Amino acid sequence: MDATTTTPSLRRHNLDTVLGHAWDAEAFTASDVIAAVGLTRSTAIDVLDELSARGLLAEMPNARAVGEYSKGRPARRFAFRPEAGVVVGVDAGRGHLSASVADLRGRTLGTSRLTVDPELDAPDRRRRAAEATVDAALTRARRTRGEIVALCVGVPAPVNRAGRSPVHHDGFWARMNPDFVDTFAAWAPLVRVENDATLAAVAERSHGAAVGCDDFVALLAGERFGAGISVDGRLLRGTHGGAGETVAFDRVEGVGSAWGLAPRCVDAARAALASGSLPSDSALRDVDPESIEAKTVLDLAAAGDAGALAVAREVGGALAGVAAVFGSLFDVERVVVSGAIAAGAGPIVAAAIDAIPDSLHLPPPTIVASTLGADIVSIGAVAAAVEAARTRALDLAAFALPEDRARA
């Protein structure tokens, strides 16, 4: 039973408000709380005492003891306890599983990564691999399953509000998300399962190129395009969790498919080699077509290789088309190219900025590269788990009042 289901609404509001202030603050006094949230002194002190009793705050040495107060009664000082529980973020990609254990402010305590064979991704095997990866991360963090208060899993599939994925014609989505919401129900009181691109958007909004931006698209752009879409500060999901699915690009002229930037770089470079159109001084001419990788092309483009830059311009044209579609449909301010590919995508982004159509009627979105790297889904999963814990902390048995715990 939730420990605070009978908490009066005004009381709950005051607790939530003060906890929200404490979650972001360093050590503070009742006067700091009064100034920040506007409560009376008696109410502020009462709420601080309750949050301390729940284990979410710790009372610190008073202001006089730390040299901040010299006259009269010393002010009591409090601090949020990020160590009071842990959250877990899981990136359950097609060929890998990674888990990060973090404290309640999202500071990483331990991680684990497991490479999986995508051809052997049966649901039971995938569930066991996810559990093993989380257990390994907990061991490295020196924490236990019982300390988890929220857990979030990111998957390469649409996910509805209940954490489940719709039926796909070849069963791929069910294999990627074998009902992880049930798998981890016994591990944590709060479990979220989200599309990986949605979590990329959470990461960009929390820590990356979309901080302070309400209207943007986080475009996972490596092997295939996937989009996390924020409009008016709200992440879009859709009836089946399919907002941001990009199979429609199969029908968009100039884009042609949902394939991401990496395979487009490889295909364009191979085509240029086959056609003999590469400049004579391009280092791409010396690369075996079968061994070409996107990183090779992008590294050469960044170094100014004329042939690689021509490939980047071609791929940038497709990226411009993708950005134009999102700009036209959702009127977003920014498209953030995210994922591992973003580190070297500068030449493509520059070409896309030059190529984006000026006939959209609306101002075109800005195209930028993410700085969050290959771990963006894990970063977003941890941030989403922290958000869930922060929103529901007062409902959790772990943070119940001592008398309520005794009755449970």
Give a structural overview.
- This protein has 408 residues and is an alpha/beta fold.
- Helix content is 39%, strand content 17%.
- It has a 5-stranded mixed beta sheet with strand order 6-5-4-7-8. It has a 5-stranded mixed beta sheet with strand order 11-10-9-12-13, with helices on both faces.
- It starts with 8 loop residues before the first helix and ends with a helix.
Quick structural gist:
The protein has 408 residues and is α/β, with parallel strands linked by helices. It contains 13 helices and 13 strands. α10 packs across α11 (346-355).
Order of helices and strands: HEHHEEEEEHEHHEHEEEHHHEHEHH
Main pleated sheet: 5 strands, mixed
N-C termini distance: 8 Å
How many strands appear in the DSSP assignment? 13
- Largest beta sheet: strand ordering: 6-5-4-7-8
Q: Could you list the spans in which at least 5 consecutive residues all have pLDDT below 50?
A: 1-6
Overall pLDDT metric: 94
Task: Give the amount of beta strand, in percent.
Answer: 15-25%
Radius of gyration, rounded? 25 Å
The number of helical runs is 13
Question: Which term fits the overall shape?
Answer: elongated
- Percent of residues in helices comes to 25-40%
Structural class: alpha/beta
